[in-house]
């Protein structure tokens, strides 16, 4: 390259970029596409990487990552004297934990967790070993009366608790003054000092003692040093949040990539139009002796400028969106996995680099073909106008062939599919195959409509036939719209099906009137007490142990086989007479669907569990639905559980009331038996809470869907404004022929409405296919839950109305542009263009 | 049919306001064919646009078929252009998505004035019979211009306004199309105001006017 060449190249770049000064809207749309795509993608990336960082911090969670627990065999809790004795004996890794469930005056359940922050082992105290997590907090106020109750901000918001306020519980007790603060892994629990919790709950024993990292030798010494009533057990609840949450993060990433793809459609449109409009400039430059190489370099330089600008703005927008979406994602993560993510979001250099790389690749993808056509063509315009028509038909054919290839690849992937990532590759292939086939579908339907209208009045035929002139410009926008509509419909059907399945499942599983969870209650004695016979129809005490199966914490519950909910336990898959044989003590076991789909367990297969007496074999008789649970779970008859494990703990009591008995009667009996308010929940409260959690979990999905649809709307607007810009002289000429403004608007609107309607119609079966894949394959692979797909026309109708609204809005903008620009175009009629 | 009375039109330019038409008076009778000559930038096209109601004068009065354009709203102006006035431009502006036959009938269909006999006459005289099922992009430039002429005349407008209608054609084709255009305008019974910078084309018409320094002059050459 000679010294004059960079200067010449600079001139060429300036000449090319000058186009955007004259047409700032195109610059805006190009940037809008890039920003929209990058923003949504980076928002999810920021959240994902932030969540991963939070999981790493989860190692410091109170007790959850403790290596061992010390519990009381009798379930009475652990005396303070025993704890002090252990500490004095040199076991400095032992710290106390108090956990309790209480309820507010409005009956909202609350979880309380408490510890002695000063006793936490250094390795579990949080970053930098600072027990309070934040040096600015007043730890003296935390450990001294009146103490502090730490409320996570979101929880304080929900409960309407302000800083310094004391939340009053159902029984009139008041929590310590609220501090709106949270340890990273506090979760949706109120955190306080162990002294405050004991005083609040009226207890003098700890729930358990947690043990920090210790060597096997120390563990053996510790076990030997325990009083007879206490036992040391390995913490089976240690969980790998990264592994557990991988599916959800993959789903979020897939949705963000879809948004990026939809954003790329806008970019593709904008780049194509900007090259199209600059044909005369490119031609003039070539006539002036600028080489194709120099022009290519100039456009590459321009691309670098756009990609850098788009990435920076997109990342900034992404940071903003991630702040807005974080509460929804946090809710999903917490509700599904109990994983908590903090509130501080940061952009890491890798996300920045990937965003720029993706933008560059996207722009290169959008530019390559139109640029090749522009630069490989003759310097002077040649050929006839039919070249454009033929080029459009050729482009549709090429896309259709591409769609066929993608569809074949999708079929191949479907038969081989074994992981969540492959599942999303399949969804991507299906979506893009449909999007690429769409232009040909629209063209064919349009041709058919033309034939149907062959005998219609000329003006009507003209209005419909104008679709042929609009289709090339609308092609990309319609593909983007199809992707957005399909994703919306697919996910809506998934969420709707899941919601219905969950509600039905809750109706069957939460069959009892009252659920009690109290360490104070002698469940068997309470149910058998003749004093309760007047109101109690039946009671079902549930016991359970936590073991480790396939490397995951796994709960084994012991069920009373005689109670109504157990007798009618809905099974997703089962052997003949499964429930009767299981209840009959044939060493049969019921497993949740997660154990089947994620753990690979089959019906009739033998599962080996480690009991107190060594490994024991059970045959799988059925799989039960267990929505929302990330863990494996097994059901055994209560007696079978007791035979296998000595130290089973009570996990609750379900009570069925006799007809006509009020809940107050039962509650009075519970109080008389020593149960405190807040330790029982009515059936309706549990169902309401479950559905609320479900809706909050899927709020993120709805937000992403809406944003994707907005991006598609922007693509539509870009395309229509491009049509307006390109065809303004033609529209002016029509006006000169006497076409009214209303007729002109009809010419623009009718084909557009036709294409949008066809795209919407195409999205309905495609959305059903997507939801079918999501429900029967992706969802099962991701979470291990199965459910029937419930298709309803309502989401499609709602989206149809929404699309109509978007089209109306876009048309309104176009009409205002038309009104503004048409007079000038009419005044210029006849001048050489 | 068309009258201008003291029509003034000015344009704002960076260097100040420019008066393009400085009090133009003009009258064209029904059936009369008038050529408007002038140098580039003299305001010929502006005058034509004002006559069609595509632009509004700063002062003066324009009437078409007895209707004062300033008194007409957008809808009435559209109705005027639909039925009374026809425009023919150097660019043909045919509707690419309609066949030649539909393009010819387009404006007549808009104003509901289809005349099958006259349509057949136009098609034959413009040698378009074999092109009717084709689409505009399949025609040559000359053929497209003939379609535009047929479209402009089929509904027998009272006034035809043409702006360099043969500007895109070669010299030989231009003469033939011009002669045909004039004859067909006469056959339709329309008045014609044609802007051109070619004296040869102007010679085909009844009267020639020269626009110079914003005013009309009779051609005395």
Topology:
The complex is a heterodimer of chains A (833) and B (221).
Chain A (H helix, E strand, L loop, with lengths): L3 H19 L1 H34 L10 E5 L5 E2 H9 L5 E10 L5 E7 L23 H5 L5 E3 L1 H7 L18 E3 L9 E4 H8 L3 E2 L1 E4 L4 H10 L4 E5 L6 H37 L1 H9 L4 H46 L11 H28 L9 H31 L3 H33 L5 H8 L1 H43 L4 E3 L6 H6 L7 E14 L2 E8 L4 H4 L3 E4 L3 H6 L4 E5 H5 L8 E6 L2 E11 L7 E6 H7 L4 E9 L5 H10 L7 E3 H15 L1 H38 L4 H43 L9 H35 L6
Parallel strand pairs in A: 4-7, 5-6, 13-18, 15-17
Antiparallel strand pairs in A: 1-9, 1-10, 2-8, 3-4, 3-9, 11-19, 11-20, 12-13, 12-19, 14-17, 15-18, 16-17
Helix pairs in contact in A: 1-2, 1-10, 2-8, 2-10, 2-11, 2-23, 8-11, 8-13, 8-15, 8-23, 10-11, 10-22, 12-13, 13-15, 13-24, 14-24, 15-22, 15-23, 15-24, 23-25, 24-25
Chain B lengths: L1 E12 L2 E13 L4 E5 L6 H9 L6 E6 L2 E2 L5 H10 L1 E5 L10 H11 L5 H10 L15 H13 L5 E5 L7 H18 L2 E5 L3 H4 L4 E6 L2 E4 L3
Parallel strand pairs in B: 3-8, 3-9, 6-7, 7-8
Antiparallel strand pairs in B: 1-2, 1-4, 4-5, 9-10
Short overview:
The complex is a heterodimer of chains A (833) and B (221). Chain A is of the alpha+beta class and 833 residues long.
Task: Give the tags.
heterodimer, A: 4 domains, 25 helices, 20 strands, B: 221 residues, alpha/beta, Rossmann fold
Q: How many domains of chain B, as an integer?
A: 1
Which word captures the global form of chain A?
A: elongated
Cα-atom Rg of chain A, whole angstroms? Answer: 33 Å
**Widest β-sheet, arrangement of strands of chain B:** 6-7-8-3-9-10
Q: How many distinct beta strands of chain A? A: 20
What fraction of the residues of chain A are assigned to beta strands by DSSP?
A: 5-15%
Work out the radius of gyration of chain B: 17 Å
* Overall body shape of chain B: globular
Structural class of chain B: alpha/beta
Number of DSSP helical runs of chain B: 7
Please name the two chains that share the biggest interface, counting residues whose Cβ lies under 8 Å from a Cβ on the partner chain: A-B, 35 and 38 residues
Strand content of chain B: 25-35%
Poorly predicted tracts of residues of chain B: none
How many helical stretches of chain A?
A: 25
Order of helix and strand elements from N to C terminus of chain B = EEEHEEHEHHHEHEHEE
CATH superfamily of chain B: P-loop containing nucleotide triphosphate hydrolases
Structural class of chain A: alpha+beta
Characterize the biggest β-sheet of chain B: 6 strands, mixed
